[in-house]
Amino acid sequence: MRDILSFNLRILPNNPHNICCKPSENFREIIQNVAKPHGVSNMRKLGHLNNFIKLLCSIGHREENFGFTYEEIIICLRLALLNEAKEVRAAGLRALRYLIRDTNVLQKVLRLQSTVSILLQSNEGERTQALRLVRKIITVNAMLFPSSIANSLIAVGTDGLQERDRMVRAAIAIVCELALKNPEVVARRGGLSTILKSVIDCQLSRINEALITTILHLLNHPHTRQYVRVDVELEQILAPFTDFHYRHTADTAEGQLKEDRESRFLSSRMAIVAAFRSWSGIINLCKAGNSGIQSLIGLLCIPNMEVRKGLLEVLYEIFRLPVPIVTQDFMEGLLSVDPARFQDTWRLSDGFVAAEAKVILPHRARSRPDLMDNYLAFVLSAFITNGLLEGLVEVVTSSDDQLAVRATILLGELLHMANTILPHSHSHHLHCLPTLINMAASFDIPQEKRLRASAAVNNLKRFHEKKKRGLKPHSLYLDHIIRKSVSSHNRRESHSRAHRDIYVIKDTEEALMMNLRDSHILNHKQNLEWNWLLIATILKWPHVNLRNNKDEQMHKFVRRLLYFYKPSSKLYAGLALDHVKARQLTVVGCQFVEFLMDSDEDGQGYLEELVRDMVSWLSSSSGLKPERSLQSNGLLTTLSQHYFLFLGTLSAHPQGVKLLEKCGLFQCLLNLCSVKNQDAVLKLAVSTLDYSRDGLARVILSKILTAATDTCRLFATKHLRVLLRAGVEFFSSWGMELLVTQLHDHNKAVSMEALDILDEACEDKANLHALIQLKPALSHLGDKGLLLLLRFLSIPKGFSYLNERGYVSKQLEKWQKEYNLKYVDLIEEQLNEALTTYRKPVDGDNYVRRSNQRLQRPNVYLPVHLYGQLVHDKTGCHLLEAQSVVPDLSYVVRSPMLDTWEGIKQLKAALWALGNIGSSNWGLNLLQEENVIPDILTLAQHCEVLSVRGTCVYVLGVISKTRQGCEVLKQYGWDAVRHSRRTLWPVTPEEVDTQLTSELSSVPSTLSLNSESTSSRHNSESESQPNMYILDDDKCDILDQTDEPSFYSHSKPVKDRSPFTILASSRFVRTRFLNSLSLPSKKLRSTSDPKTPSGSRTPTELKTGSMRRNRTVTEPSVYNRNHCLKKYLTCTTNI
After folding, report:
1. Which of 196-205, 892-901, 1114-1123 has the lowest mean pLDDT?
2. Is the pTM of this model over 0.85?
3. 3-state secondary structure at position 912
4. CATH of the domain at 124
């Protein structure tokens, strides 16, 4: 070691004793010492090799600085690779890796056969350096990769597990990397089979997905597809399911067969799911003939319980559905997968109401396409076409109770999904129900099977009833927010009345006195033994309050309740949150507060006493040490936190607000905003106060948004999304301003959350108008801020605002140069995050914090596109037409360059741009004028690059947003869903009678509610619905989430096409929904291919040639209101 240190002092360039030496002289000394066979110790050689790297990094890779040629240096370093000391050999490999910087040097290294010694490495240190050198070769030029090294890597990957080789995963990873850049050298040496074998060996989801995605990537492009034998190699991942005697290795001991089989099931399940997450995997597994999907579905009919259980788990994961618990009770299994069931992230100490509302309350998007719907619709249609539902019926009727429960729930989920996201022409999914009914009614089958079929029919009916009730809030806090969003005249009637009808309410004084006695509240002070159902009935008794009833018994009744609920008594406040009567006691407490408010001056004294006691309890934590704060005093675990619901109930009434102000509640909350360790208190305050009126509640919210801790500011910002989705009145007039303020928060998480909420809020025109009026600064928020600013262009007011500042012309130039390509990256990254284990790094950091908790049903709403916003107005369409945007994009579509990834990306960018242009009737006219839609359809059916097909079908889905777009695509045999995303039970076109049409047509015109010009009024789907009608519809959507019929008023039921209510067979409709699943045999010429003889015409041209027409920008035809619903094409996916 002393020799090395002294050598470092003498040879390093920054040593003052050696500062006059030229780099060439230092190189000469290093090379000479490394090449000497004798007289130089191995430790000195190791030091020379390390200093060679330092000197190389300091002077660069200019050959004139070396004093030697690259060949001479390589020959000398090659001697180090043959040294007897493993440390010197490892240092020689490291030096060689640093020397290779470009293809020229790599060619010289390979020509001198310096890499042969890599094959001889035996110890871990050398192998690590060897693998790093191999990766360097791949990085510099994978096409020069030596076949000898490929053989070694593949050998380690194939047999490494049996030999317990620690480098096996690294070797397989390098083989995958090499397969992406030089598939030929891997395929010819059996490397692809090694990758697929490793898939079945791996039970780690991220690694398993990376392995199978390598194969799917090769299948995507025709140049690399030739290396994969699809029928043999890809379907290896199905073998653990399809081969009942499957053994991964022949030497597996008999005692380990069961454990080995379970691990292979897990690996195969991961690989199958990953394959169905990509376009190339779907096409190859769903192709015509003996396909993988047919093999899987066929296994459901074979009475092998182990295989059936594994396949059900595969299907649940493919369709992004939570797997029910193992149980024989259907309702227990159904409740275990209820999205509204309690989750740990809903606790007060975590995401609380903001996290719950994001699951329970629907997104504000109406006409904005969700690309996940397209993906799921295609996969679902493929499975249904191949007999999945019939297979599930067989599982239900011939399996044990536990499997039957899981299969029944899956059958119900898929029927509901098909009814929602598949076009009505695909109603053949209803045929499984007549089959089930026939089995339940037939006496020609075994009794056990008949009874199971009958039970399944009843369970599906219960499943349907639960779906019709919708999602119900779990917490009283979210329920409180939703109730406050109901119009004021229904507030008194909006409290929970789950048990109201148990006792018949008689509007007589005798009946009231009898109920007072039966409630036991006057007889004894054992509070929990009181009849709380009767107490709730008395508080809701018509025309009963302290003003009308001066009886002493009524006052005694009130005083007993008051004492029970006062925080100082510690009766109610001391109960645990999970107490069996906790929810009931809190609901009665809220009713008690409203009862006192309705009693005018007779109840004001009692109410003021209660409020002052609550304020005193709340202010007790202000200014105290953290260990004495409310959080440490039972707030997180007792019913004391529900006092905020009482205060929130008061804040929803004008007289209640006056009382709260009189008792000093608002000032107390303002003081707590600046006190540390009060996060839970502020969360509760934010979640319960009423913001529908301008007053101190909004002041407190604003203070918390700006002055509280980072955690509280983030929660308060997220709560604005809750208020937005709940439909709080006049959100556009005050909520948008608060969100704009949050854009400038110093915490990036807060500003990004506010930006995301603003993006959702702008789905409503009123909010968009309010945002334009505020004129926010968005340039500091990067690309997401730019996309939000582009939304201004969708309405005339915003277009004028940006156009006056020259913003529109600048953006048109930027999008044509770069942003169209960046849009492809943005949208595919979102799809990757939704469909795979990929997670985008935050702030440019390569490290991503990962969680095993996967999103059950992520949404990928179509990002904003410049062209898509411009076509919502006649002026924007004129601008695109003047700059010949559509002809230029159409040329790219008709003459694609599919040989390079850059050309493929250009094609995808053009497709997305055309799709966004076609998202409105104005823009669709531009596409029809250019007649580019047939070319997009040709690519969707026959493009040799499979991911381009997925992009095309997504684009067609965007085009089908409008009724006009649906009709155009229908002419070519492509069906689209023609109902709103929020319409759970859509009416079929055949069932739309004259009465319904007249009812829908009588909806008020948008002209009086919309400030936009008449010419653009009917341009887009979202604008054709009247704002007032939308608000009412939103409220109905929210109110339908409860199963308590007296809770809210419901709209008149509409006749639906639910699969559960239709038992007769339905007709089949010929479509191209699953057209062209087979791989292309040859490249088809575009309809505009210049090589096509002028005298001949393609079939597409013969069909569509007569449709080409000249177009002038005029107002599109107005259509009936019954068509004013969002439409989107549902077909397939693009990874």
Report:
1. 1114-1123
2. no
3. helix
4. 1.25.10.10
